[in-house]
Amino acid sequence: MPTIYNIETVKTNLEATQGDTILFSFNVTLNDVAFDMTGYQARMQVRRKDGLLIKDWMSYVSPADITITADLLEFNTAGFTDYGIFNYDLQVTTPAGTVMTLMAGEFVVKKQFTP
User: Fold this and answer.
1) Is residue 99 within 8 Å of 93, Cβ to Cβ?
2) pTM for this one?
3) Closest among 103, 105, 104, 96 to 41, alpha carbons compared
4) Full domain range(s) for residue 29
């Protein structure tokens, strides 16, 4: 994953293969300095093009789908049963309750050929 410098929502597409475990990690920086997100909560939703929710990953449930360690967001969660092109966004909530969308775009899930 390339380093992305931006103060607005990053528009980037993600890819996975149907059935594979989702293993992503994203570092968050502000002005080229690691941004400590201790105390923040993270949530990523993936929806079909018609708006139907198919994945809802959170850092504030047990077991957590997303782990926040200082400036790092790590995903280690069950993958997709469906394949296709979906929409997603990744949001964080500050300890004060402010919601910020860090990333958004399409989530491309390729068909699995080996069962």
Assistant:
1) yes
2) 0.86
3) 96
4) 19-110
